[in-house]
Q: What sequence folds into this?
């Protein structure tokens, strides 16, 4: 039993990062129907900005978090203005290709400038260390990352459910033309959604650096796929559903690997896809109510 | 009292892409009036409403609201000037609850007290909506959804409501209720532009009417006179 609980606790850090990314992903996916593969690069640039602030320029960690947020915001908005706005209203295929193109450009630019090697991300000693609960080891940084994510999650769900902005976002997800007849400036609301999503990406990137002690130019590829799967499993456009699904994916993967025979450890990536297909077969709209037409 | 019409369309030509749906349409709505656009399916009635809201291409002509040119103004800006719409096919947000749909209608209001006051007013007009307050809008019946979308249009305290086929798909008793509610709303000073295929309902409750055929106005007049018109009687009231 302790071994089982240990796997859950170990997965909290990774689960929190996927939860944050899934929340940001589902917001843009829900509001403009955009499968944004460039979101992994927003996450990566956020991590790199934090890395430069903390490791290269030796600035305090809180400045690193700020740098991560600003870096992600700048690149997220730049991608929105250059790659997505000109093709707004085009079909899903066009948006998909554009996002893929933006992802390839940003990733390769980063590779050209900073190469593909692992960069050491310095984490202050105060965030290192463990707590012991009998035989169970609880990593301090997992608790910190989990707590930050839960606080952000509560704020996000409140925003979406209880504020005018949230109702406008959910209205636009369903029918943007009707929303406009109610006085909603859909263009401005879309930009605000991108800002929030980029913010979440930047925070997630910084927390990744904190969790794994490193950043890399291609680090966005796998998390963005996991975030996409979590947002679909959670019900498209449903922030709460996306975050819960992020934890389900991470914790499920952790338990799957822990109990998998050593010789089958290569099957690890399969878990996420198996879960994805099982859920879609039995509940095609996702575990929670989707927010789109 | 201002003599400028609340809404006027002057020689408006509009459509989708290269296709003109409405051709040199001129319409006036005076403050406090109910004006109806009559005509069968696909003659351009809904296109007129969509053109007012800048949801189609205005090719020529002008649209003025309170004397201000609103031709091609962004839809959300037109809504902010005091025009609400009850779209064809209801246009509820199925993913939101009844209350959330109504609150969406209050998007432009800043005061919580005003929103609460308008919410209570809508509940007094449509008590059934209060019973369904936390229900998802998609689970409401057709009549309840129509009440919801009219209630949503009232939330922002508009000066003018554009109603597109509010009786569509409703049972006769509900059609009568919708007509009664439109008159009640109008008695509070809200002007109405009504698009209806149900000529009897439209002529019963409206002051002035325009008969639209193939995107053009072919007949107009006070509804009391239109109802006696042989053409209208024959085509729309089933009286030969």
A:
């Amino acid at each position: 039993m302790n071994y089982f609980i240990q796997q859950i606790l170990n997965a909290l850090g990774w689960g929190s990062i996927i939860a944050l990314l899934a929340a940001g992903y589902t917001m843009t996916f829900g509001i403009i129907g955009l499968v944004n593969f460039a979101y992994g690069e927003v996450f990566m640039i956020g991590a790199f900005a934090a890395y430069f602030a903390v490791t290269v320029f030796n600035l305090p960690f809180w400045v690193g978090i700020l740098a991560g947020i600003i870096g992600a915001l700048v690149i997220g908005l730049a991608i929105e203005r250059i790659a997505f706005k000109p093709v707004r209203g085009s079909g899903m295929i066009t948006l998909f290709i554009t996002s893929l193109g933006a992802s390839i450009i940003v990733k390769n630019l980063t590779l050209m400038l900073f190469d593909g090697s692992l960069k050491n991300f310095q984490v202050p000693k105060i965030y290192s260390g463990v707590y012991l609960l009998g035989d169970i080891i609880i990593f301090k940084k997992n608790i910190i990352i989990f707590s930050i994510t839960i606080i952000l999650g509560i704020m996000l769900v409140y925003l979406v459910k209880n504020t005018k902005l949230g109702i406008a976002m959910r209205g636009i997800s369903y029918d943007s033309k009707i929303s406009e007849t109610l006085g909603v400036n859909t263009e401005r609301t879309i930009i605000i959604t991108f800002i929030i999503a980029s913010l979440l990406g930047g925070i997630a990137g910084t927390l990744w650096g904190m969790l794994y002690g490193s950043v890399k130019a291609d680090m966005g590829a796998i998390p963005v796929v996991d975030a996409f799967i979590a947002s679909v499993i959670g019900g498209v456009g449903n922030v709460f559903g996306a975050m819960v699904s992020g934890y389900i994916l991470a914790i499920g993967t952790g338990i799957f690997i822990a109990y998998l025979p050593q010789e089958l450890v290569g099957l690890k990536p399969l878990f996420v896809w198996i879960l994805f297909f099982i859920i879609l077969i039995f509940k095609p709209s996702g575990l929670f109510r989707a927010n789109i037409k | 009292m201002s003599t400028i019409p609340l809404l006027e369309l002057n020689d408006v030509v509009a459509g989708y892409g290269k296709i003109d749906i409405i051709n040199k349409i001129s319409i006036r709505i005076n403050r406090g009036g109910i004006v109806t656009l009559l005509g069968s399916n696909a003659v351009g009635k809904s296109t007129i409403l969509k053109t007012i809201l800048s949801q189609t291409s205005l090719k020529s002509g002008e649209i003025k609201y309170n004397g201000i040119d609103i031709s091609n103004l962004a839809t959300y800006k037109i809504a902010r000037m005091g025009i609400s719409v009850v779209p064809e096919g209801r246009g509820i947000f199925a993913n939101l609850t009844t209350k959330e749909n109504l609150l969406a209608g209050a998007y432009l209001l800043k005061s919580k007290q005003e929103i609460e006051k308008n919410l209570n007013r809508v509940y007094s007009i449509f008590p059934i909506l209060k019973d369904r307050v936390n229900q998802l809008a998609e689970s409401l019946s057709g009549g309840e959804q129509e009440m919801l979308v009219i209630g949503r249009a009232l939330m922002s305290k508009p000066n003018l409501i554009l109603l597109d086929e509010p009786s569509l798909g409703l049972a006769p008793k509900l059609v009568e209720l919708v007509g009664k509610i439109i008159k009640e709303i109008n008695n509070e000073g809200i002007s109405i532009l009504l698009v209806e295929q149900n000529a009897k309902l439209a002529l019963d409750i409206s002051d002035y009417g325009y008969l639209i055929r193939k995107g053009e106005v072919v007949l107009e007049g006070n509804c009391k006179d239109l109802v006696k018109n042989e053409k209208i009687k024959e085509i729309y009231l089933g009286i030969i």
Q: What stands out?
A: The CA atoms of residues 56 and 240 of chain B lie 37 Å apart. The longest strand of chain B covers residues 19-29.
